[in-house]
Design brief:
This protein has 422 residues and is α/β, with parallel strands linked by helices. The protein has helices spanning 2-18, 62-81, 100-114, 130-138, 153-158, 162-165, 168-178, 198-211, 225-235, 240-254, 277-280, 306-314, 328-341, 347-354, 358-371, 386-413; strands at residues 23-24, 37-43, 45-46, 58-59, 86-93, 118-123, 141-149, 184-191, 215-220, 258-262, 265-268, 284-287, 292-295, 298-302, 320-325, 344-346, 375-378, 381-384. The strands form four sheets. A nine-stranded mixed sheet has the order 10-11-9-8-7-6-5-2-12. α2 runs parallel beside α3. Bound molecules: iron/sulfur cluster.
Length: 422
């Protein structure tokens, strides 16, 4: 575990540095890029809040949520007027399907302004009805990702999802019914809960193989520093050794049936799937409260305060409230992290983007990863090995935990209490 601990520490340190924003206040978005970019839209409302969750989410209130969707549509119009165009859209949360009629209206605005080639939407199991999925498919939604986390009733109870989204039997029925309507139905799972045993994990995998969804994303449990204290009281602390062992069990069980499309996303063999937006897109705009964007060499964060967000949009002002411009080397490292998370990186594309060969900017990093057996060089591509896949899981865990820590601080500064109610 020495290598894993070392790279985890490096990523932890680098992520904390990346998210120490140098400009805060009211910030204008950069000029629209020449080419279309991706768009991430955030809907923070959830009917109830899960204790392990470190996202930007607040307890659902219908009036506030309807007002928020109005603001989102207005923000889209503002980006459109600025000359932005979006090739693909990811709507995440929170629970984007918390008000289905509002989500459908938002999708109509999106398609009207930008005609993106593909749209992904996150949802929870209680919103998996066939009618809604058909309405989403009619509006160009190609991928729906449903948060299941586990099929173990004991863990579902411990994390507060049993009474919200139902037992394992009900979850299986809902997923079975929901298949075949959108191009890609993805099931989001979490592993390495402190109370999860190997038997429970193998049972989850068995259930997934029987259900055979188009795509499965298996995240290791990731908790911010604040959430860690809460989780410790509920079920203890997870170990990294177990994470590594469980990852091996997951990849072994899905081998032959699914093929990895990122270090933690597995798509059914032979199917064509779309994936997480950070893997396939260099630049993206973030819309909605607490969303991040990466455009023109800088990372941007929108205000986490919902009232501030609504006020700014009403006054015709963008909600960006923090920015950090990266150095060329930081951007190159980010490209390597995200590129290889998607399993391979094209060195010609890298050269085109950075106007330099990959070795000249990332020589020490590539040498290190080659020495520890994480990557191979095949023609113009750098590829992640099986061993390297777990190293990337460990690094992405640290990266997202760093993002979650930043969210916690921003939410606190915005006056949002720890449990998440506004
Ligand atoms: S994990 Fe729970 S609280 Fe977090 S976004 Fe999903 S439903 Fe909301």
């Amino acid at each position: 575990m020495l290598v894993e601990r070392f790279i985890s520490r490096v990523i932890r340190h680098n992520t904390a540095h990346c998210f120490s924003f140098e400009n805060q206040g009211e910030i204008e978005p950069p000029p629209a890029p020449e080419k279309p970019v991706h768009l991430y839209l955030h809907v923070p409302f959830c009917s109830e809040l899960c204790p392990y969750c470190s996202f930007h989410r607040v307890a659902f209130r219908e009036d506030a949520a309807r007002e928020y969707f109005r603001s989102l549509k207005e923000e889209l119009r503002m980006y459109h007027d600025r000359g932005y165009s979006f090739s693909g859209v990811y709507i995440g949360g929170g629970t984007p399907t918390v008000l289905p009629d509002e989500l459908l209206g938002l999708l109509d605005s999106l398609n009207g302004y930008f005609s993106p080639a593909e749209i992904s939407v996150e949802t929870n199991p209680d919103r998996l009805d066939r009618r809604l999925l058909a309405d989403l498919a009619d509006r160009n939604v190609k991928r729906v990702s449903v948060g299941v986390q586990t099929f173990d009733d004991g863990i579902l109870q411990a994390i507060g999802r049993f009474h919200k989204y139902g037992s394992s039997a009900l979850l299986r029925e809902r997923i079975g019914d929901a298949q075949g309507i959108v191009d890609t139905l993805n099931v989001d799972m979490i592993y390495n809960f402190p109370i999860q045993t190997e038997r429970m994990l193998r049972q989850d995998l068995q259930t997934l193989v029987e259900l055979s969804p188009d795509q499965i994303t298996f995240y290791p449990l990731m908790v911010s520093s604040l959430t860690r204290d809460r989780m410790k009281g509920i079920m203890g602390i997870s170990g990294q050794e177990t994470e590594k062992r469980f990852y091996g069990i997951i990849t072994g069980a899905l081998d032959g049936l699914y093929q990895p499309s990122s270090a933690w996303c597995f798509s059914r063999r032979g199917a064509s799937m779309i994936d997480e937006y950070i893997v396939i897109n260099d630049d993206y705009v973030g819309a909605g409260s607490g969303a991040f964007g990466l455009v023109a060499g800088g990372i941007y964060a929108n205000t986490f305060s919902l009232s501030d967000y609504g006020r700014r949009i009403k006054e015709g002002r963008f909600p960006l409230s923090a920015r950090k411009i990266f150095s060329r080397r930081e951007l190159a490292r980010y490209a390597l992290l995200m590129g290889l998370f998607g399993l391979s990186m094209d060195t010609d594309m890298f050269r085109e983007k950075f106007h330099a060969p990959v070795w000249s900017l990332l020589g020490p990093e590539l040498l290190f990863f080659r020495l520890v057996g994480a990557v191979t060089f095949e023609g113009k591509r750098i590829k992640l090995t099986r061993k390297g896949q777990y190293y990337w899981v460990a690094m992405m865990r640290e990266f997202f935990t760093g993002v979650d820590n930043f969210r916690d601080l921003s939410r606190e500064a915005a006056g949002i209490v720890k449990e998440g109610s506004a």
